[in-house]
Amino acid sequence: MNFIFQSSPWWILVCLLVGAVYAFAMYQPLPRLVGSGTAMGGFDKRTTYGLAALRFVVVSFLTFLLLNPLIRSLRTLTEKPKVVLAIDNSESVAAAGRPALNRALAGLQTLRQQLTDKGLDVSIHTFGESVTDDSDGATDLTQVPFTQRTTDLSGLLSSIRSDYEGRNLTDVVLVSDGIFNQGLSPTFGQYPFAVQTVGLGDTIPKKDIQLKGIIANRIAYLGNQFPVKAEIVSNGFQGQRATVVLRQNGKELGRQSVSLGKNDTFDQLTFQATATQKGVQHYVVEIVPQPGEFSMRNNRQDVYLDVIDGKEKVLLLALTPHPDVKALRNILEKNQNYEVDVRILTGTPAEATPPVDKTYDLLILHQIPDNGSVGNALAQKYLAKNTPVLFVLGNQSSLGPFNTSNSVMQVNAQPNQSDKVTGVFNPEFKQLNLDPARLDILSKLPPMSVPYGEFRLQPGSEVVLWQQVGSVRTTKPLLALNITSPRKTAVLAGEGLWSWRLEEYALTDKQEVVDELIQKVIQLISVKEDRRKLRVYPIRNEFVAGEKVIFETELYNDIYERLFDKPVRLEISDEKGLTRSYNYTPTVANSRFEISRLPEGAYRYKASVTVNNKAEQASGQFVVRDLQLEALNTTADHGMLRQLAQQTGGHFYKASQTDELVRTLTTRPHPARLTSTEEMNELINWRWLFFVVLALVTVEWGLRKFYGGY
Question: Transmembrane stretches, by residue range (predicted)?
Fold first, then answer.
């Protein structure tokens, strides 16, 4: 340590002078009393000099502190070289047999002890946890469970790089079979340390049949058929046949035989299944085991489908046959979520009248209300239910009833007069994610026929397309909507949609832009608003076995303000009917609830809470899927380990070559790292100096009182 002065050191002399003057003034010699050997102050000469010295030291030091000197200290730390044993504790490592694995781990146990004896710091890292070992080697490596269901070697090395950034990490010993099924290949990474690799497992391909993958839809509709494709890879069974079975709830739905080809080639077959029940359905695809197979775990995979009966029911009500009606029907049927019911009012009674007891989610009125009042009464029946509606105006539309039936626009038009307009996208419309560049094609499409007159938007309405007459853009809406009113409504103020689709196909060989525009407008007005006061839902629809299932909870009062601190009861039922019950209380800081160790399967849940003496409920489904990734590949990849070691300046070793690895790590020079830290601190911040000064002042004061001073 040394002093650093922020002003000239010559000021120290001034501090000493101030202390001397103060001490002299305080203890200057006084005349002796007649016949006495002491001064008038009552002190003898030795005591006077001693007290003056104390006063001199205290005053000089306090004056010195006013100069605010700095203390610079230099601290040097010696950090020994570090070695990390990164152990791949996934299931595939143990697939070759536990006895051979234990022998390899016993060698690593010896390796760790030898490195520690040589003065190296040794740590152990595995997937999902980090264990730091001290020199006594308390952790037994042979007790590593090897139960991780996935392998991310790149993530393991990256976490070590992050944890030891700035530290003296020289080598990482990666003990693995080289198989990874998550993340990137570790050979793509850049590491500031040498990776010494130790190869485990068997590099000889096993005689095995694997169900490599399943291709199936995530969603199916009730009553529909759906395909389930199975991809099969085999080794050592060339020319033989295997049987593949599709089951649901233990019931066999189909069985097919496949001829196995050359090693490591894909064979594929397809099952056709029918969705007969609503909800998440669990199917199992399994290969019947063959004699001599290495593993049966990769012969089976699970398929989960959400079977829904949730198609949006759309009633397309038209006054007369019209090409726009077919165009609208084609647009709607592109989306499998819509079930379209077309009714032509001027057709036969059977074709014109919708079923009495059928409920619709969306109403499309083509030229209704009409001048002849043919469909007005029927339209009012559905409008009274606040069913979302799309009005399409035409030359038969009756604008008086239309103006009183919609919340989007008012049209005052001259009878039997129309205008020819094209559409121009409104860039201020942000409710939908539409690409303005793609919508430029609207200017090249044929004009629509719209009523000629005045158009006035209602409060809350938004314009999607403006009318353009020739090259003049008007402020009249062509396509507009209002989603703030009790009944969500959209209006297409003209006829000729069919010609737009034909012209777009002629220009681009596709029918995408116009169809996407109409589809998104229909989706926007038909989407159901969630007004539930309790919403409990998993953050994902699918989880992997072994990970936590996390639920998010939202609770609202009557005016839809967020509520917290209300106890929630959650019940989860599996496919076998077993119910698990949980209780938790969401808070402002944490509105989530986590459940660990749920086994594979399809689950239904129901949550309930009481708010103002009223029970609120929420329900849903989720899936816990066992991916079996570790069983899909059991052939060790030592080639990748060799490449990784070569790229990072390390070497590849077999499990039996740990002695050679010890020699490599211990004979290579590993200088300790010296880390110096410089600190600057103000002297006045040293608290103990206060007590030193206080002690000196106290001693002086006590002596003065003791000798009768004042």
Answer: 49-71
